[in-house]
Amino acid sequence: MADDELRDRLKNLERPTFRAEAAKAQLKLTLVGTRTSSRVGIALVLLPAVFVFGVILHYGFGLEVPGFSQLEDFLSWTDHQKYVPLLSPLIMAGAPLAALALNLLAIMHVEVDRARHELVVTFKLRVVNIVIIAVATLVLIMLAMHAVAESGHRPGRASATESTTGLDQTPLPGLAAK
Amino acid sequence: MSSSVSDTDRGLIERAKVDPEAFGALFERHFDPIFGYIARRTGDYDAARDLTSETFLKALKNVSRYRVTDVPVSAWLYAIATNEIRLYFRRGRRAPLSLDQLSADAGLDVPSWSELASSERESADLELERTQEFARVQRALLEIPIKYQEVIALRFFEEKSIAEVAAILEKPEGTVKSLLSRGLARLREILK
After folding, report:
1. B132-192, what's its fold?
2. Is 1.10.1740.10 the CATH number for B1-130?
3. Quick check: B41 contacting A, CB < 8 Å?
4. Residue A177: is its pLDDT beyond 50?
5. Complex ipTM tops 0.90
6. A113, β-bridge pairs
7. CA distance B62 to chain A (A)
8. 0.80 exceeded by the pTM?
9. Average pLDDT over all residues of chain A
10. CB contact (8 A) between residue A18 and residue B133
11. Where are the domains of chain B?
């Protein structure tokens, strides 16, 4: 077979064409999916994290944190609103909890090995997801500590207007007369 | 590739550097040719799925390093794909990570995707059976050194010009012509 003959044969070869719509859709979702959990996690944890760390820096060390006072005023406003009483707890506790769950699910894989009677749990080492989990956990711990500290300031123990964060300047409902 | 398409690709890739969502448009444009290239080189639908995933994952990770003044986007993607195919053969036809595993990690429902993949796999097998002459040439190609396989596949299966093959393989055009000539000589010996 001459060189030209082989070249012509290859040029005229009918090439297979493949349908891969399922693979395309699956890969596109996968490419987006690996980033979605971390982006949503950042969005959920950002506000509570800024608030919690802002409280520490502002009241603990006397440092000014950009945007903190506006955030503080907003949360104080929501606390006193009749129709959105749950907004503040949703932002401060619900959002970090959701961020924690979302990012934990993104990196955790659970498998049951029936043959060996083992439950195998693996964690993917994805830095962004792990950082969000750490920040969300820290925010939740600090909120829990604040809640415990606040419960120590309930009526019977201390004034109802006291608050460790300086946020709540009004008495708790139903307790002003005491 | 026409200059208008190339300009659009360049615009998209510049946006993808700051907005990864823009990568989706590049993905839509280049998935089919890349998948087809890998499937024709490997002759295996499942390998093509996995290697195509690896190609686009690496492209997404390295998009910030891509320079618009370098090779066209298409050539860049083909270069990544060619490298993945090379590694695949070196690993004894084993892909590093399957698309199904990637999807499971991302929390997608893998069984439903597997059913769709099954029907596409059957179509791919039928298509390879239909193009028997191609399958014969492709099997013969696998018997020659990989450096010749690459130039022949890109030149004749993917219909790339010598300049495009040179850009993809990052070799001078003279070297590409020489590899093509020697590769065809080897292939001729196997096919006769």
Report:
1. Arc Repressor Mutant, subunit A (1.10.10)
2. yes
3. no
4. no
5. no
6. A118
7. 14
8. no
9. 74
10. no
11. 1-130, 132-192
